[in-house]
């Protein structure tokens, strides 16, 4: 039995299990706070938005939130059990050995650690996706369907899943291989080299996402000639954004949730608006949302986020440098060699508390950026339409209307609706 195996575990493996379950306990406590808040009949909408959200709309928000919270709790427990089984029953060394066997069968037994690391990672990522398929299906075709958000067919779901698995393997393999080579080549100074490599990889994916990756899943159509396009171009020119293209993406084929974003890194300057947003808002509100997104670009929020991320990555690599060749850690988990990819995975277990706490700073920075972008839109004269647009988003998406403060701090980048409206300023809508 699992609990009998756990009882006899000590050392680094025992420490990792203790850390893992402690963090799981904290996350579960935070999630339960949110669920209790949604279930508490005494908790009502903040006064500042009570006049804009009807009782029926708030009831729908609570029902959707409760379903998502319960789903999250079940999935969290499942993931924790899988993680525990992986550690207790030495799944990782078995998977590493199996990866070597796969290479041997393919006639590549002499390919070395690099090929085995890529094979191991590909199998692990694919297995993780397959294990999560049931939850992904339930989330889409039960919860999202029940609350009127799902527009996705089962055929499209299957196609998306296959595309995602293939893309994950295709994109991760060269990154893993190059990352290992950089660490080996860097020697004692690998921290700075590996940090630079990760930064270059992040920037590359930021550029590739809107231009190459996202179009694999969605259709991007140039916005129709007309009043809205002219107004968006005028707005972009007003803030010196060198817009190259404005696209409408067919988000409605999967979900009725709405969104918009701006890309402006290394010459890739485009504005993307979901068709659902165009359906739900008037032109002034759409312009307000675009102004908010342009605020992220104008105020260098992407660059700042990359800096914060880079600082955290450098700290993690520096910490990893003390464990890379620490054989007792490898031995504790059943490894008698020191593959770099395995070393980083085992180190990640020990580093989890710091990684967990760092999410607080990431979300804090993210919330500051959201407030900052709201103020940018307000200064452009879009304060009122931004407020009405945010209220519509809250109603349509049934999210972030009145979350638990602790839950919000750990899980939500966007500030609660009431806080955003208060920051933008009072008005009569």
UniProtKB/TrEMBL annotation:
Cell compartments where the protein resides: Endoplasmic reticulum membrane
Cofactors named for this entry: Zn(2+)
Catalytic reaction list: Hydrolyzes the peptide bond -P2-(S-farnesyl or geranylgeranyl)C-P1'-P2'-P3'-COOH where P1' and P2' are amino acids with aliphatic side chains and P3' is any C-terminal residue
Family: Belongs to the peptidase M48A family.
EC code(s) of this entry: 3.4.24.84
Primary localization: endoplasmic reticulum
Catalytic-site annotation from UniProt: 293, 374 (proton donor)
Positions of the CAAX prenyl protease 1 N-terminal domain: 34-219
Membrane topology listed for this record: Multi-pass membrane protein
This protein's GO CC annotations: endoplasmic reticulum membrane
Name of the protein described by the UniProt record: CAAX prenyl protease
PANTHER family (alphabetical): CAAX PRENYL PROTEASE 1
GO BP: any one term: CAAX-box protein processing
């Amino acid at each position: 039995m699992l609990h009998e195996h756990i009882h006899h575990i000590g050392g680094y493996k025992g420490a990792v299990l203790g850390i893992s379950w402690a963090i799981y306990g904290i996350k579960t406590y935070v999630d339960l706070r949110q669920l209790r808040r949604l279930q508490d009949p005494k908790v009502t909408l903040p006064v500042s938005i009570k006049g804009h959200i009807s009782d029926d709309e708030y009831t729908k928000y609570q029902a959707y939130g409760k379903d998502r919270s319960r789903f999250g709790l079940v999935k969290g427990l499942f993931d924790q059990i899988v993680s525990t089984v992986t550690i207790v029953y030495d799944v990782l060394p078995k998977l590493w050995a199996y990866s070597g066997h796969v290479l041997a069968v393919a006639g590549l037994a002499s390919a070395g650690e690099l090929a085995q690391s890529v094979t191991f990672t590909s199998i692990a990522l694919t297995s993780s996706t397959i294990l999560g398929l049931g939850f992904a299906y339930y989330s889409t075709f039960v919860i999202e369907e029940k609350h009127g958000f799902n527009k996705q067919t089962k055929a499209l779901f299957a196609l998306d899943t296959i595309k995602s698995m293939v893309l994950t393997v295709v994109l991760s393999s060269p990154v893993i291989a190059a990352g290992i080579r950089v660490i080996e080549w860097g020697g004692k100074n690998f921290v700075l080299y590996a940090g630079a490599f990760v930064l270059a990889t992040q920037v590359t994916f930021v550029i590739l996402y809107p231009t190459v990756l996202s179009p694999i899943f969605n259709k991007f159509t140039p916005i129709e000639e007309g009043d809205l396009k002219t107004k968006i171009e005028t707005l972009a020119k007003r803030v010196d954004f060198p817009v190259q293209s404005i696209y409408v993406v067919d988000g409605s084929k999967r979900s009725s949730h709405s969104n918009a974003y701006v890309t402006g890194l290394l010459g890739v300057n485009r504005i993307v608006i979901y068709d659902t947003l165009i359906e739900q808002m008037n032109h002034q509100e759409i312009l307000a949302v675009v102004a908010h997104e342009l605020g992220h670009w104008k105020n260098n929020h992407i660059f700042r986020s990359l800096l914060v991320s880079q600082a955290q990555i450098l700290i993690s690599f520096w910490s990893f440098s003390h464990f890379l060749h620490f054989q007792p850690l490898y031995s504790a988990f059943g490894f008698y060699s020191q593959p770099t990819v395995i070393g980083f995975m085992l180190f990640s277990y020990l580093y989890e508390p710091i990684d967990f706490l760092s999410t607080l700073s990431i979300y804090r920075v993210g919330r500051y950026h959201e407030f900052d972008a709201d103020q940018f839109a307000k200064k452009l004269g879009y304060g009122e339409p931004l407020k009405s647009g945010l209220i519509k988003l809250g109603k349509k998406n049934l999210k972030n209307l009145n979350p638990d403060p602790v839950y919000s701090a750990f899980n939500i980048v966007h500030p609660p609706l009431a806080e955003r409206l208060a920051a933008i300023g009072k008005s009569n809508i």
